[in-house]
Design goal:
The complex is a heterodimer of chains A (about 325) and B (about 325).
Chain A lengths: L7 E12 L3 H8 L7 E13 L4 E5 L6 H9 L6 E6 L2 E2 L5 H10 E4 L13 H11 L8 H11 L16 H13 L5 E5 L7 H18 L2 E6 L2 H7 L2 E6 L2 E7 H6 L4 H9 L38 H5 L5 E4 L2 E3 L3 H4 L1
Parallel strand pairs in A: 3-8, 3-9, 6-7, 7-8
Antiparallel strand pairs in A: 1-2, 1-4, 4-5, 9-10, 10-12, 11-12
Chain B lengths: L9 E12 L2 E13 L4 E5 L6 H9 L6 E10 L2 E2 L5 H7 L4 E4 L3 H4 L6 H12 L4 H14 L5 H4 L9 H13 L5 E5 L7 H18 L2 E6 L2 H7 L2 E6 L2 E7 H6 L4 H9 L67
Parallel strand pairs in B: 3-8, 3-9, 6-7, 7-8
Antiparallel strand pairs in B: 1-2, 1-4, 4-5, 9-10
The chains are: A alpha/beta (about 325), B alpha/beta (about 325).
Chain lengths: ~325, ~325
């Protein structure tokens, strides 16, 4: 019996950002300044499989590469290495027309509802431009389609002639969602889609995400730094640290007992309504610069269990229990 | 410290701060009263536009025109700050009362080294020589957990990470061992593990030195882990106050109830969150009567009149005519 083919899969995907030397630096090097190109390994050999109908939460702190990974999944960034598969087929190898149709099925919702909407376009154009360009709606059905899309995300179609600045933050988030939904996607990448919203508005948008998932049978990759939000929405959670995945686990298992020391530290720091006046016992140190990551396991300078081996050798992601993957040398001991 | 140990550090009574804009009078803070005692942490919770930050600014005297404290008393160790002359207020500001802001990049001068800024802050209030001031700055940096403070004193703000910058801002606030620190969302822009570290430092400080703290935030779960008392603000008013345990375990005001229901947590995994319908009304066009009326499921004709502060339970002042008195689980 074969395991089901995942809807979307990443295989050993890496993304590097290189700051090239400019002319002045090259000239300096000619005289022995010794300037070197700076390379950031934003995403380092990440593999990930997402099944149809699943909500996968992607968690990590700033600079861990979660947004870059999300953009690779959405096809905005091209990976330097590795493959992206849609229902088991490599997207890069598809015929051009089919590849384009596939990319349309994967849409992205961005964090900042102020920066991600063109301030000079009316809401009708923001939402309606893509389906018209891609020939998904006929012009005489356009108005109905637009109204239907707006109603679906809880926007009054009467506002379609307005500009983004005339809406509140929560409504703007809904416009961003409607824009993504307008091309009938099957897969949504949500990059910190609720981070900029007030708690009560955030709850409304989270409820909308869950309703849309049920109505349209969508699959989500939900990127967030807020573990409470991820815990609430996700079936499975992926935790990243400095460009690498350190743990993948079903949400219930992860929040019951994280395996990786970083996951443990992260979960312990989450402020919760139930924990009162606790004594905060913080994890030591700061996130190292991705320009110059530590050798071996990236987490070893902050890890309370670090050994000599952790400094030398990067641990690989291994299955430690059914459905549970962790990248830590400590698991070898048992 | 002056006064008896039981005397509250800060008493705010009927504070009203209004902004006289061209579009009309914005009642950013409207009849707010609370008390902070020595060594205690008061959480001030609210969403954007609830007036929580302006309350903090009013206490430390940083409200700029067209804003003005129009009414009320701010008693700091028995002295009324609202009626203090500017030069008197200046002596207190930064020495007895300090404030930490959300964005440390805005607090620190980007073109001056950390030592220059911190020594200036020391000498502004105390006639000490440069070397003593530098010692004080170094000790303060060490206290907030900055490694090798001697070297870091010579650095510029951009050479620090966000978390470290916020520590520098906290260290600067601590230089004169203030009796009251107002923290305006100091950890909102920081990562979870860094936030944990900062909360740890602040909690320790409060316990060890008996500093009173006002912690302004939109995040109820931070308050749960940190504060002793909490005031929930909505549209310029405190709608509910009490100890953290009382308010979070048994919220009386429908807004607090909705706010707690909106926080995603493991208890409600996969189920829809209890959402508050609608959005925060503009302070320019508040509905008459109770400001929360339009979003409240309990609202009826009685809510057309602005609710006064009542005490449905002992020590639990709220502004609501329909408090949630059903015992919650």
């Amino acid at each position: 019996m074969n395991p089901p083919v995942p809807m979307l899969e990443l295989r050993q995907v890496s993304k590097r950002f290189v700051k090239r030397l400019d002319t002045a630096a090259k000239l300096g090097n000619f005289f022995g300044a010794g300037m070197r190109e700076e390379v950031v390994h934003a995403v380092d050999k990440v593999s990930l499989a997402i099944n149809p109908g699943e909500v996968v939460g992607l968690v990590g702190e700033s600079g861990c590469g979660k947004s870059t990974l999300g953009r690779i999944v959405a096809g905005i960034h091209q990976a330097n290495e590795g493959e992206r598969l849609w229902h088991g087929r490599v997207i890069a190898d598809m015929p051009a027309a089919e590849a384009r149709a596939t990319e349309l099925k994967i849409q992205m919702i961005f964090q900042d509802p102020f920066a991600s909407l063109n301030p000079r376009m009316r809401v009708a154009d923001i939402i309606g431009e893509a389906p018209v360009v891609h020939g998904m709606v006929k012009l005489d059905e356009f108005d109905d389609y637009l109204d239907q899309t707006m109603r679906r995300v809880g926007l009054d179609p009467g506002f379609k002639r307005r500009y983004p600045h005339q809406f509140s933050g929560g409504q703007r988030a809904r416009i961003g969602i409607a824009r993504a939904l307008a091309v009938k996607p099957e897969f949504l990448v949500c990059d910190e889609a609720v981070a900029a919203l007030d708690v009560s508005i955030q709850a409304q948008v989270l409820n909308l995400f869950m309703k849309l998932r049920a109505d349209l049978s969508l699959t989500y990759l939900f990127i967030s730094h807020d573990l409470g939000v991820v815990e609430h929405l996700s079936d499975r959670v992926v935790i990243m640290y400095l460009g690498r995945v350190v743990e993948i686990a079903p949400a219930d298992d992860l929040f019951r007992g994280p395996n990786h020391p970083y996951a443990q530290a992260l979960l312990a720091e989450v402020p919760r309504l139930e924990t009162r006046r606790r004594r905060f016992e913080p994890v030591k140190g700061e996130i190292p610069s991705p320009l110059d990551p530590p050798t071996g396991c990236h987490f070893h300078p902050r890890c309370p269990h670090a050994t000599e081996r952790c400094k030398r050798e990067a641990p690989v992601l291994r299955e430690i229990a059914p459905q549970r993957w962790s990248a830590c040398h400590l698991n070898d001991a048992t | 410290m002056t006064g008896g140990s039981d005397a509250p550090t800060l008493v705010v009574e009927n504070l009203r701060t209004h902004f006289f804009t061209r579009a009309g009078v914005v009642k950013a803070v409207d009849d707010v009263s609370f008390t902070v005692t020595k060594g205690r942490i008061l959480g001030l919770v609210g969403e954007s536009g609830s007036g929580k930050s302006i309350t903090g600014f009013s206490i430390i005297g940083l409200v700029d025109p067209p804003g003005r404290v129009v009414e009320g008393r701010i008693l700091f160790q028995g002295r009324d700050l609202a009626s203090l002359a500017e030069n008197e207020a200046r002596k207190l500001r930064g020495s007895r009362i300090a404030m930490i802001f959300q964005d440390p990049m805005m607090t620190l001068n980007p073109v001056l080294r950390i030592d220059t800024q911190m020594i200036e802050a020391v000498q502004a209030h105390e006639p000490v020589d440069r070397e003593t001031a530098r010692q004080r700055a170094r000790d303060a940096l060490g206290k907030v957990g900055i490694p090798s403070p001697d070297e870091r004193l010579k650095a510029y703000p951009h050479q620090f990470s966000g978390g470290m910058r916020q520590r520098v801002a906290i260290a600067t606030a601590l230089l004169h061992r203030p009796e009251l620190i107002i923290c305006d969302e100091p950890t909102t822009a920081l990562d979870v593990t860094i936030q944990g570290q900062i909360l740890y430092e602040m909690q320790k400080l409060c316990r060890d030195s008996g500093t009173a703290l006002i912690w302004i935030t939109h995040d109820l779960s931070v308050i749960a882990g940190l504060a002793d008392e909490v005031c929930v603000m909505y549209a310029g008013r405190i709608v509910e106050a009490g100890t953290v345990d009382e308010v979070l375990d048994r919220p009386l005001h429908p807004y607090t109830l909705g706010l707690i229901g909106s926080v995603p947590s493991r208890n409600v995994r996969g189920r829809p969150l209890a959402q508050i319908p609608g959005m925060t009304p503009s302070l320019l066009s508040l509905p008459p009567g109770c400001a929360f009326r339009t979003r409240c499921e309990r609202a009826d004709a009685a809510c057309m009149e602005a609710p006064a502060i009542t005490l449905p339970l002992a020590n639990r002042p709220i502004r609501c005519v329909h408090p949630n008195l059903a015992a919650s689980s």
